[in-house]
Design a protein that fits this description.
heterodimer; A: alpha+beta; Sulfite Reductase Hemoprotein, domain 2; Sulfite Reductase Hemoprotein, domain 1; B: alpha/beta; TIM Barrel; 30% helix; globular
Amino acid sequence: MYRYDEFDARFVAERVEQFRGQVARRLSGELTEDQFKPLRLMNGLYLQLHAYMLRIAVPYGTLDARQLRMLAHIARKYDKGYGHFTTRQNIQFNWPRLVDVPDILAELASVEMHAIQTSGNCIRNVTADHFAGAAADEIEDPRPVAEIVRQWSSLHPEFSFLPRKFKIAVSGSAHDRAALKFHDMAIEIVRNEAGETGYKVLVGGGMGRTPYLGYTIGEFVAKQDILAFLESVMRVYNEEGRRDNLYKSRIKILANALGPEEMRRRAMVEFEEIRKGGTLQLPRAELDRIDAYFAPPAFETLSDEMPAGDTAFADWVKTNVSRHRAPGYAIATISLKPIGGVPGDATHAQMDALADLMDAHGLAEIRVSHEQNLVLPHVKMCDLPQVHARLKELGLATPNAGLVTDIIACPGLDYCDLANARSIPVAQEISERFADLGRQHDIGELKIKISGCINACGHHHAGHIGILGVDKKGVEFYQLQLGGSGAQDASIGEILGPAFGRDEIVDAVERVIGTYLDLREPGERFLDTYRRVGIVPFKNVAYGQDLHAAY
Amino acid sequence: MPLIKGGQFIEDPFFFVPDGKAFPDEKGVIVTLARFQGEKENLFAHRALVGVRLASNENPAVLKSDLARLAAVALEFPKFRDGRAFSWARMLRTRFGYTREIRAVGDFLPDQLAFMARVGFDAFEVRQDFTLDQFHRAMTEISAPYQPSADGRKTIRDLRAR
């Protein structure tokens, strides 16, 4: 993985000291909260319902054991003993004191981490396929380009006050595990007819109030041109993106107002101009230098046979273990979705123990997934039983990856200042309702995603079943959306109908799932059945019997 | 408004003349784009120093053919969140090769000064209570940038290559 050199280290250290000064000015009263707000946001510090919240970047979702231990330490020393992994591969701490934040950032800097640009109207933490470098179906590891983008976008002088936030995701596989089409901009590594690899660039995707799927703006951008290409799109957006209305200021609105042809034309005018300057071209040596950091570990020649184990192990392997590119290795998903738990939360003890487990098995990396789970990307298959046994002791072996209880949920009204409704209790209740593993396997792959407000941090538009919390005169209601997907077959969920009350929503979800079980044909996932039969049969059942539509 | 240029407070050689107001006798003037477009030949004929002030939604490309004669382009920040002027300044410097004054006016934060300098601003209208200490601190807090911009500073990639 990437390691800071003296320049990266100095950059982050200077940023910490800069923020220390800003915090001191706030605490002394020299800065008002209004003046301090944009400064703290540029360092990932929010003011939430109950306290400050610090959002720390996990660039492209990759951590080493030392960094995971640091997160455990921060949870223990500065917070209430746990952290929350988010849908953007960040980790959030919900209870830090303002006066401690510069020290937290300094501690993070000591392990090559930061909170730069995890908030604000700037280019945010770059996310990547959490199976990067390990997946059997991958063309190339997407993290080198993510690191190149991270460096280029860090304190970018031209693009730190954009119309709105800007999120970039990267993937190196035709199987999209990074929700590319729902991002402001996305980079997919592709191979051309000559066998060379380059980048397909998408633009204009997004969730929120007005969801859009991104479209292709560059079919095959040469590697050395990628920053010039990104900069050209960013400039069009910075100059022409709407600034009159918060809800129309994301690039998706501009991209869809202009249409692909005009958007491409404008970006190409910029691109040619930027290329003339030549300063953004990436020399081969620089690409190679960054690539070298992400070279795969030296894989041993191992048997490709799955070791035997008990039922619990077999159940876990079935859903939580994925095919690795190297024979004899596997990718293990660590579910942060225990039955009835808070999706994405991990305690300091769990994080420390995971770091120990990594050391014990020679695992250099752990990943944070946008589905709020953790991933061990390079586990020897022969080690899987031991790894599973240890995870089980830690309460981290829930065998539910991709199943109905593997729910994404935003923090919602339990924490968030923007939320209209709670998300976590709904996730917990659904998880408990479908706790039976036999039932979960019978239902099969099903992605439930819950957001507590229209901003869609819980990705409800991309859920096979999406749940959106709304507020009606101070009472929580929940809208259901069906048929969304964040994968390569991306689609935006369709609203089922009027919202359900808090005490009705889980029953409604159960009815929708029951309808799928009744209608499915052999081999069909929920999403397949939905796409075949459409929304009507689900609507008929969801609003039947004693359920009353609230509004 | 106090003006910082070249790292110090200087006496402002320009006077901003709002639309409809009469011109002063001596000083150089900065006028709005509308007024400039209506009166530019007259202005260039009678004044040594003529500048134009652009609102944040006015693309400096409209000034392209006049840049050689303009002594200053003032770019307005109607509110600090409106970051369009960062792109306008950069275009003036790197695309149009404009070398004379680019001035920041309006509602911006001291913490944006370093970004402004990087994209090509070299003059800053600041609040009365703003100090040179604050200015120098803002300019030196981050010693090397990652990305090239209009200031020609060595980037971290350049430094690595040494």
